[in-house]
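Much of what follows relies on a compact textual record of a protein's fold. A record is reproduced here so that you can trace the correspondence yourselves:

. . .
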Amino acid sequence: MPDGNQIERMDRRSFFKKTGLLGLGVIASRFPVWSNSMFAWDNPIHNIPEEKNIDKQWLASLYERSEKIAYRKSKNELRYIGMPIGGLHAGTVYIGGDGRLWLWQIFNTAYDGEREGIEPKNVMWNNGKELVRVRPRDGSAYVEPAIADNLRSMEQGFAVSVFFKGKHIVKELRENHWDEIVFEPTYPTCRITYLSADFPVDVVLTAYSPFIPLDQDNSSLPLTTLHVELRNKVETPIEVVLTGWMENGVHKGRKDFKAVKKVSHLTEKSGFKVLSYSCDQVPDVAKQAGDYGTMAFTCTDSQAVAVTRLKDWPIAPQNIKSENSDSLVDFSDFQVGAFTVKRTLKVKENSQISFAISWHFNNPHPKLQQHIKDAKYGYWYGTKFKDAAAVIEYYVTNKEKLDAETLAWQQTWNNTTLPHWFMDRTFVNIGTLATANTMRFASGRFWGWEGIGACAGTCTHVWQYGQSMGRIFPDIERNLREVTDLGVGFQPETGAIIFRAEYEKRPAIDGQAGVILRFYRDHQMSTDDTFLRRNWPKLKQAIQFVLDQDKNGDGMTDTPMENTLDAVWEGEIGWIVGLCLAAIQAAALMAEEAGDRKFQQICMNYVRKGTENMDKYLFNGEYYIHRPDTIQGRKKLGSYNTCHIDQVYGQAWCFQVDMPRINDREKTLSALKALWKYNFAMDVGPYIKTHLGGRPYALAGEGGMVMNTNPKNEEKAYGDNTTWQLGYFHECMSGFEHQVAAHMMAEGMIDESLVMTRVIHDRYHAAKRNPFNEIECSDHYARAMASYGTFINACGFSYHGPKGQIGFAPKIGSSDFKAPFTTAMGWGTYIQKQQRGGKRVCQLTLNYGALELKEFHLGNAEELSLDPKQITVLQNDKQILLHKVKRQGERLVINFKDKVGLEKDDTLTIRWL
């Protein structure tokens, strides 16, 4: 959440001042059966229905594999689509629903309070009582999504030209040129099909930037690739001309440097031509500008004809003529270069032609450079490549590997029995890393906003919710732990971690606990204990800081401190107590591995006391609460006896890192059921119209889980002195919702988990807004990466690299289950099948990298034999000897006699005879 000091208080407070009884007659008239007293701002009546009335057929459909997601022109589903299509930390470039690139937020313009979000505009929203102004950080893009055609700042595209039945026909790859366009997203790739009844060629465009899990460097190229497939669908050979063009975007839109001239330079490298875009006659002051740099464009086809500047506009492919390499053109205003390829397609023949576009703008925003010394020297890609042409050359030189491994991941991720929609929604938010929300500086340091251009400092209490980055690119998380959390943000005198590093001076208690939990996950996603041991002294201090916040020694944190809801709450708060207990339990496990037995015992004693007291004193018989401070009482804002979305968040974390419980299972289930009962609605409209002050992240007619509700209709339920932060309680923020959905999945509330995930997915359907941009405080909000946790728990996945452990306990379709997995050094596919007589076959196939295993864990295996003679383990065709087989709680554990080392394409099969 944004720091309260950064929020425009007039906006927030005006919600409270203006939303009293006055003017609510209109709303009351819509609900005549309710008394007017329910509309009093101080105490609106809880009005989320307990019965959800979910259609049984719709619910059943959520479990089905179903068809791949496809958005269509014929259904008016293309205009909002903006899939991030560049490399990690290289700015935002979107590919639209019709295949054209847009937004181009690569010029280092985003900064808090200046150009926030993907479209820095304010909109007016009717909250049910009045029109209120909504800024980008408050969800303007949710109310009025950005439209691709309004933000298409550079000319780029493709045209297909044919001579057919005596006519010359040219079609651009754009929406109004085709009868039907189908956009199929499989992030990080997409496939767009162009169809017209009267055109002899169908076209398929596949686009992506190299994206290879565990390979941060090759996934961080400032580049996008576009692969056009031409398909002859008529019964005669046909000649086709394909032209791709790209504008010189250097110094795009600047008016203050009149002497600057744009330059296009055509060169040949290693058998392919490159159009390099730059500028000349640049004043020194302009060289520090965010849009000072280079771009490049290429077609990898050896027969491609290149021109540095199109003279015909709109495009006329038939008139394009070749230029020699080393040709140079300068033109100070509009400049578009192109590549053209001719093909004669035989009957039913297909042909693919590939293009690539790169950029290199190495001047971070000047205010970032003022605050962060790492930003003064530019970006990581600026140290690896001298210009955009060098990026192109690297890609083309390594094209076979980069393309193959990207597509291998795309196929691995989609080779599953889990529903297409589920796989899409739980993974898609990792695209946040491929937007202007994150940066990787020349020093190697990773840094991020909360949402694009809003709320600085890789905020600990926001980023801790994310689960995808730690599983897909664990190097980034380890960098964040060492360079920021235990580096520039660390206070060695106290062990406190400043929650916004250079942008703050205070720690946040939930952020501090989250760092410890993430550290344990990041240790598990390592090959050995080097990372843990190297950082143990500082990490131990950070853990001690959390222990020290329990002033009365009852195992429950009670020191007032900043939290993610931008307030300092007093007392013992269920969700903060639980999160700290989870962190200390993770600390105990890490202390054991670090050989610090004394500290391990201190942590375990604390957890033992705290878990007992939390269940005893903070559980009200139905859910976990906030116990007021004994002196302050309820004077200040808090959740108190209300139903808060994060109340068992600590227990949720236990499932992400395979730890023992910290909360009683029955009490936890009761709390989750209370959240479902009191906070979830298939239509949040009635609630948000009566509980005003929240931001619009779910609108009338849409489903969602509200942050905090007052089901008992208590007077002053949130304290005697409510402040502007109360508005957060009445919102639906997807990152928090994903956290609860993940927890429900782990606890066996599968229906509820799928419904929650699906209503978020439906809120971001392409007919309504951009499916790739989950919004909270600005666009591509980091907390939404919590969605991956639901996938982890659907697989019942556990992994501990240093111990050589991997495990699965599928929650959906366990008798015939297939899903991807990632580990410290490799990734692949897991298959589990139930056979006759209760027998089972489990199989791991490694599709990338390497994997070392000492033991395999299998959940829900009570009926399986522990007799090693009844179990056969094969690595490919080689039999693996077992050491022992045992039960460990609800799982079966198979220990191998010797370490098993898998390499790419190896398969490990475990079969019960």
Q: What stands out?
A: Residues 3-41 have pLDDT under 50 and may be disordered. The first strand starts at residue 71 and ends at 72.
